[in-house]
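stage 2 :: seqdesign
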């Protein structure tokens, strides 16, 4: 095993902060290590730091697998995979679609595996997990006996690793479309297409929470495949879902038919324009959901993103009935919880509405947040009520 020497700052990032990443700027000597290898990491005094996946392209040079001096072989990977899978056992009673492996959150950095019924969707997001992909696929087959495994390696982070974009079946016979169930709501998904790995699994528990408080006429903005809208339907008189994508609206309508949701309609619209028009028309709603795509994709875009979040929250608050419920989300890691809450507070002041915080929520429990790695906490969901 090759050894990589890191600076005191790099070593302390792991030892004191508990982070799993060491950046290129804190690598003192890579010796003869090749990209994708598992390497031994030591500090400048020769003290053991851990074992990590090494990348010779990314700014994240090292992704820690273990802080123990242990053998990292096929059986080591099997144990880590099995532990993550077992942690999801309780989810199977409420859904057949969830995240099995959440990279750093499960101490398996740069590896994601989602389950859609008996089909698995895999992402290997670094040189290290890409090099181990064949082994990982083999272990997943042995542990879970899936019908098929699909790779959705079409995300930008792979380009930062010098890796090709790939989408395709790596095991078995994958269907073009399959059906999933979440809390009794049925959806058709296409694992080889659409957003993420086929669905936004990270909002699963937040949709159920939103249903608990929803009432009246509801508006679901950025609806995608209608997941929030269909969860709200049993609690509301009517639900209108909006999305700029024609394909998303078609998919949402199909899902509404699948669930016999006669009180749900979907329209193709630019949400910013639609909110402005509905406010001008004097429309009112008992419940409004704002679940936009990531406005802040990097630190440099936070200011512009803040303006976008402020606008949609301001307009939503103006259209809510007294007692109305706002479910507002950001999936941008760079938009911190405190900053997001301040934007909502400012919007409520400008809208002259008294707003009561009901719940602060994060991504679903199958996307666990690892203390010491703040990047694993990216989704913020705020449920609030207009009381005046």
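stage 2 :: out
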């Amino acid at each position: 095993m090759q050894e990589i020497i890191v600076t005191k700052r790099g070593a302390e990032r792991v030892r004191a902060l508990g982070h799993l990443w060491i950046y290129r700027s804190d690598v003192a000597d890579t010796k003869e290590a090749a990209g994708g290898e598992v390497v031994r990491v030591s500090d400048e005094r020769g003290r053991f730091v851990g074992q990590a996946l090494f990348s010779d392209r990314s700014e994240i040079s090292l992704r820690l697998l273990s802080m123990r001096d242990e053998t990292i072989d096929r059986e080591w990977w099997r144990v880590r995979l099995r532990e993550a899978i077992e942690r999801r056992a309780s989810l199977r009673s409420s859904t057949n679609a969830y995240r099995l492996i959440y990279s750093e959150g499960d101490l398996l950095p740069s590896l994601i595996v989602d389950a859609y019924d008996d089909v698995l969707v895999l992402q290997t997001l670094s040189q290290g997990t890409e090099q181990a992909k064949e082994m990982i696929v083999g272990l997943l087959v042995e542990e879970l006996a899936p019908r098929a495994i699909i790779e959705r390696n079409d995300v930008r982070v792979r380009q930062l690793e010098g890796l090709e974009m790939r989408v395709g079946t790596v095991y078995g016979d994958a269907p073009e479309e399959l059906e999933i169930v979440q809390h009794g709501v049925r959806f058709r998904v296409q694992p080889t297409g659409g957003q993420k790995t086929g669905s936004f699994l990270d909002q699963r528990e937040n949709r159920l929470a939103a249903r608990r408080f929803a009432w009246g006429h509801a508006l679901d903005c950025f609806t995608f495949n209608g997941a929030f809208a269909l969860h709200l339907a049993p609690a509301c008189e009517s639900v209108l879902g909006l999305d700029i994508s024609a394909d998303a609206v078609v998919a949402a309508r199909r899902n509404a038919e699948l669930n016999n949701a006669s009180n749900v309609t979907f329209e193709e619209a630019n949400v910013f324009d639609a909110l402005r028009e509905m406010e001008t028309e004097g429309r009112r709603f008992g419940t409004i959901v704002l679940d936009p795509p990531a406005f802040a994709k990097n630190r440099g875009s936070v200011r512009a993103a803040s303006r976008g979040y402020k606008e949609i929250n301001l307009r939503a608050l103006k259209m809510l009935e007294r007692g109305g419920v706002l479910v507002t989300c950001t999936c941008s890691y760079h938009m911190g919880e405190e900053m997001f809450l301040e934007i909502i507070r400012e919007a409520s002041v400008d809208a002259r509405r008294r707003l009561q915080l009901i719940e602060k929520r994060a991504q679903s429990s199958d996307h666990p947040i690892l203390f010491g790695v703040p990047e694993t906490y990216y989704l913020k969901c705020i449920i609030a009520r207009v009381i005046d």
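stage 3 :: structure notes
- The mean pLDDT is 96.
- Residues 302-319 form the longest helix (18 residues).
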